[in-house]
Amino acid sequence: MEGFFIGQIILVSFNNIPQGFVPCEGQSVSPRNEGGHRWDAVYSLLGDKFGYDFAKNEFKLPDLRGKSPDPSLRYLICVDGVYPTPQ
């Protein structure tokens, strides 16, 4: 999705997940690029901060379920956007 950085977390009030985003639900993903997402780029930014399964070679995304200020809102993380670079 244009204009969003990989690893950027947004809070949304709608159920449809925009292309390039996934829910922040603590899911495990492989750092290989699969499913059209740039998981290697996501891993380079998040690392094992939210957990890592060495047996499966998978890292975890943040789990922000239940952390929203309103139950009708949900957090999404950008997994296919602009790679942030220092300026």
TrEMBL record:
Transmembrane segments: none annotated. Pfam families: Collar. Residues 7-69 form the Phage tail collar domain. It comes from the Bacteria. This is Tail fiber protein. It comes from Azospirillum doebereinerae.
